[in-house]
Amino acid sequence: MSRRFTRVTEDFDCLVCGAAVRGDGYTNHCPSCLCSRHVDVHPGDRGAGCGGVMRPVGVEFGPRETVLTHACERCGERRRCRTSPADDRDALFAVASAAATATTGIFAHPRTPVAPPRRRRRAPGH
Ligand SMILES: [Zn+2]
Ligand SMILES: [Zn+2]
Questions:
Q1: Digits of tens for pLDDT over the chain (126 positions)?
Q2: CA of 40 to the centre of ligand 2 (A)
Q3: How far apart are the first and last CA of the chain?
Q4: Which ligand ends up closest to the CA of 37?
């Protein structure tokens, strides 16, 4: 009784930055720019047929692992995946700070200072 494991170890060239990515069966994204392709419904099955570029839009730094969120440029599907030790730390931090800016974007630009509130004269009391 032999189970067949289909671990996909595919090498590919990153569509976005052109880096040659060595597939290790775990990571499906480019270690230098962290982009991926929307090809799988379940890892390795190539069932999505979308083919859009999935760009990193968020990073969660956990105590044990770092999880990356990808969003497909074409169809907008979001997906979370674990990062691999080969992933570029600087790129991860860049994504994290970009995501932080995006969520707090409305506060990024200080509003034009408004005139200080007029002092209310206290009504003479009895
Ligand atoms: Zn890349
Ligand atoms: Zn897609």
A1: 555 655 556 677 888 999 988 776 666 789 999 998 888 666 666 676 798 999 999 999 988 889 999 999 999 999 998 998 889 999 999 999 998 887 665 444 445 556 666 777 776 766
A2: 9
A3: 96
A4: 2
Listed residues: CB within 5 A of ion ligand 1: 14, 16-17, 19, 30, 32-33
Phi, psi of 91 (to 5 degrees): -65, -40
Of the bound ligands, which one is closest to the alpha carbon of residue 39?
2
As given in the structure block, the two tokens for residue 125 are: 């009391």
- d(CA 115, CA 93) in angstroms, rounded, equals 38
Give the gyration radius of the chain's Cα atoms. Answer: 23
Domain ranges of the chain: 12-101
Query: Hey, is 57 helix, strand or coil?
Result: strand
pTM of the model: 0.67
Cα(55) to ligand 1 centroid in Å equals 10
